[in-house]
Amino acid sequence: MKPAPSLPATADLFRMDGMRILLTGAGGAIGAVLARAFADLGATVALHDISETKVAALAAEINDGGGSALTFAADIAEPDQCVELIEAAAAAMGGLDVLVNGAGINRRKPIVEVTVDDFDAITAVNMRAVYLLSQAAHPHLAASPHGAIVNLSSLSARYSFNTISVYAATKAAVSGMTRSFAREWVADGIRVNCIEPAVVQTEFTKPLWGEEHRARWFADTTPIGRLAQADELVGAVVFLATPASSYITGQSIVVEGGILSGGDWDSYADATS
Ligand SMILES: NC(=O)c1ccc[n+]([C@@H]2O[C@H](COP(=O)([O-])OP(=O)(O)OC[C@H]3O[C@@H](n4cnc5c(N)ncnc54)[C@H](O)[C@@H]3O)[C@@H](O)[C@H]2O)c1
Q: Is the CB of residue 72 less than 8 Å from the CB of residue 31?
């Protein structure tokens, strides 16, 4: 049997001092919150997005606050740019300990209106790029004493909504890839996990919660009674990225306010029809 790793003291289990993390989609609503959290916990963070301008202010904020952030631009819909991004980030940080696949897109449409271009665009970013970035990161993560990947999947991997058929399929693929990569790379000391959040209140999801009837539906259907805020994902992602989860790989943490816990059949008791 392999020896167990020696873990940090309890108070330091979730620390990220010295960790070199690449976060894709760092300019987005969730990415920016995660980036600040990683930096606060002591990590050096490579902030990636499609353009440098999307992450420049965030990097300045982190660096001015005493943290350590670098910026990288790449269109991860392009396979070559996925590989170049990994190599550039690993070279700049002197290695890579954690890859967080955070970039994602959606085009919400009924199934009968989805075009081949929609299908290809969504799968290229949400699914193929996660595969190619992880693949390119393999030698760097294998060289790390605590290599890990955390994928931002979605509750839609297992609980879909109308108009998100392609997005939901890509997120189911991300959760599936999480298991495949975890199983194959456990021998290389790389842990691979994902989170599956329900709707988080961001610009990305404003078409959902911004509509009064949809906001009411979310409030009624989510046992916790509200949508998640981006900072409510930090705990799960940090847990999966740090030695706090050293014996966990191939798992999804569903961050969904109790939606999957079941229904309340008395909630219709006062309904008139
Ligand atoms: N917001 C939610 O409710 C929610 C719920 C579950 C899962 N997620 C997932 O969390 C992740 C972040 O979501 P968000 O709400 O912060 O979205 P967001 O749109 O605010 O951020 C996504 C970022 O990815 C970047 N990106 C998109 N395509 C790219 C490309 N081709 N190359 C490089 N960068 C690209 C965008 O520029 C953007 O900054 C996504 O993977 C999303 O699917 C979000």
A: no
Within 8 A by CB and 6+ apart from 212, the residues are none
191 alpha carbon, distance to own chain's centre: 15
Ligand 1 pocket test target in 22, 23, 30, 153 with most atoms within 8 Å of CB? 30
Tell me if 70 CB under 6 Å of ligand 1.
no
pLDDT tens digits, one per residue of 81-122: 999 999 999 999 999 999 999 999 999 999 999 999 999 999
Total domain count, the chain? 1
Residue 259 placed within a domain: no
Q: What is the structure's pLDDT at 273?
A: 63
Report whether pLDDT(272) > 80.
no
Please work out whether the CB of residue 197 comes within 6 Å of at least one atom of ligand 1.
yes
What is the pTM for the complete model shown?
A: 0.98
Structure tokens at 221: 């259907």
Tokens matching residue 196:
């599956």
Q: Is 128 a member of any domain?
A: yes
CATH number of the CATH domain containing 140? 3.40.50.720
DSSP-derived secondary structure letter, 228: B
**226 is a domain residue:** yes
